[in-house]
Structures are given as structure tokens and as C-alpha cells.
């Protein structure tokens, strides 16, 4: 089971580095891994403080069987 969260579920108007809608998906074996992966992404690509988004990331993290 893999946990994942979509960037555009957190930042609906987020643009990626090339100015297109951000389709980044953070993945990990646990919620903490997703939180770390997405936190790094938010900070480096969107200049968003991941601490502010922590609860939103956790709320939008889902599990998949693939
Ligand atoms: Zn993004």
C-alpha cells in the first residue's frame, strides 16, 4: 500500500516550474513520508512553508493498493 497526496488538491491554483498547473504527486510508504516529500516540493517549487500546510497535507493524503 502506497500513500499519496496531490499538490493541486492543496494549492488549487498552483503552477509548476514551467507555469503549468502543478500535477506533482507526493508518494511514500507512510503518511510521514508523504508529508516530507510534499513538504520539500511545496517549499522548493511554490515557496510555501510546509509547516503551514501540514494539516492540509495530512487531510488530503490517501492510500492506494497499487
Ligand atoms: Zn506543486
Summarize the structure.
With 66 residues, this protein is of the alpha+beta class.
Provide a descriptive summary of the structure in words.
- By secondary structure, the chain is of the alpha+beta class.
- 47% of the residues lie in helices and 18% in strands.
- It contains three helices and three strands.
- A three-stranded antiparallel sheet has the order 2-1-3.
- Helix 2 crosses helix 3.
- It is globular, with a radius of gyration of 11 Å.
- It starts with a strand and ends with a strand.
- Zinc ion (ZN) binds next to helix 2.
- Zinc ion binds next to helix 2.
Radius of gyration: 11 Å
> How far is the N terminus from the C terminus?
7 Å
The mean pLDDT is 90
Bound small molecules, which ones? zinc ion
Low-confidence stretches: none
- How would you spell out the order of helices and strands? EHEHHE
Q: Structural class, please?
A: alpha+beta
Strand elements, count: 3
Secondary-structure topology with pairs:
Layout (H helix, E strand, L loop, with lengths): L1 E5 H4 L14 E4 L2 H16 L3 H11 L1 E3 L2
Antiparallel strand pairs: 1-2, 1-3
Zinc ion binds next to helix 2.
Features:
alpha+beta; 66 residues; binds zinc ion; 18% strand; 3 helices; 3-stranded antiparallel sheet
